[in-house]
Amino acid sequence: MSFTSDEDHGISLKEAAKLTENYRQAASAGTMLGSFFGKTALSNILNQTGCVGMRIYNAKSDDGKAAYVLVGVDAKGEDMEDGSIAEYGMGCPPSCPDSSTLAGTA
User: Fold this and answer.
1) What is the mean pLDDT of the chain?
2) Would you call the peptide bond into 94 cis, given omega within 30 degrees of 0 as the criterion?
3) Total domain count for the chain?
4) What is residue 30's DSSP assignment?
5) What distance separates the 2 farthest-apart alpha carbons in the chain?
6) Is the pLDDT of residue 64 over 90?
7) pTM of structure
8) Is residue 1, in this structure, part of any structural domain at all?
9) What is the layout of strands, in order, in the sheet containing 85-86?
């Protein structure tokens, strides 16, 4: 499979809110709803030579907490394992926005 970096992943806020609501309704109390990653971490991945996008893996820390691993992807769809990889996002909860349709706090 080949990737170009121009793939369209856009959806409306209404569609996005429904997807996150579906997840929240199925999740147990305290389940991580999302995670914040700063611009520098994302730029370090996306600005790598040959990077056309990013893959986000669901992961779990050694203490059993939900996590995400972010890695660049090249035009062949391969993970750029020798490049910049990110984790340690700021989980929600506890770092949830005060008012967000996507987090169900609006």
Assistant:
1) 93
2) yes
3) 1
4) T
5) 41
6) no
7) 0.86
8) no
9) 51-60, 66-74, 85-86
State residue 44's pLDDT score: 97
Q: Is residue 99 part of a domain?
A: no
**Nearest to 67, CA basis, from 79, 58, 54:** 58
- Residue at 6 is within a domain: no
Per the domain annotation, does 5 fall within a domain? Answer: no
Q: Token pair of 54, please?
A: 């990013």
Confidence at residue 11, expressed as pLDDT on a 0 to 100 scale: 93
Q: Is the peptide bond prior to 93 cis by the omega test (within 30 degrees of 0)?
A: yes
CA distance 2 to 91: 32
- What pLDDT score does 22 carry? 95
Q: Which of 25, 26, 31, 102 is nearest to 65 (CA)?
A: 31
Residue 62: give the domain boundaries. Answer: 13-92
Q: What length is written for the chain?
A: 106
Lowest mean pLDDT among 21-25, 63-67, 68-72, 84-88: 63-67
